[in-house]
């Protein structure tokens, strides 16, 4: 075994955490966990789309002008250049798989419109 490059690193955020499970030239797969009562910033990405698949819990998803609720085994698509937000309105942790597709998948491709944690455009997803 001994190959540390294959060990997924979890990054902590004020709203929970994410782990990059796999990354390729035009895609990235993440496991995202959002703490109950928390939400990510209202944000937008220029260079990537995102697919969200709920594994556990309930997700309140804002995508453009639309708001939807997703539960386990449901999914949604976030196009590039579209404002979006992910929120855990439930009482148990929200766990989802995010699949990113695009030419550029850097954490700095983020425009924040509103953030509960007073962050600006620092890397976060």
Description:
The radius of gyration is 14 Å and the shape is globular. Strand 1 and strand 2 form a beta hairpin. It has a single domain (11-114), classed as Jelly Rolls. It starts with 9 loop residues before the first strand and ends in an 11-residue tail after the last strand. With 125 residues, the protein is mostly beta strands. It has strands at 10-13, 16-23, 27-34, 42-44, 48-56, 59-63, 66-70, 75-78, 84-88, 94-102, 111-114.
Index terms:
mainly beta, 0% helix, single chain, globular, Jelly Rolls, 125 residues, 11 strands, 3-stranded antiparallel β-sheet
The description of the largest β-sheet is:
6 strands, antiparallel
CATH topology: Jelly Rolls
Label the overall shape.
Answer: globular
Write the element-wise H/E pattern from the N-terminal end onward: EEEEEEEEEEE
Helix/strand-derived category reads: mainly beta
Give the averaged pLDDT, no decimals.
Answer: 91
Contiguous uncertain segments of 5+ residues: none
In spatial order, strands of the major sheet run 1-2-3-10-5-8
**What CATH architecture would you give?**
Sandwich
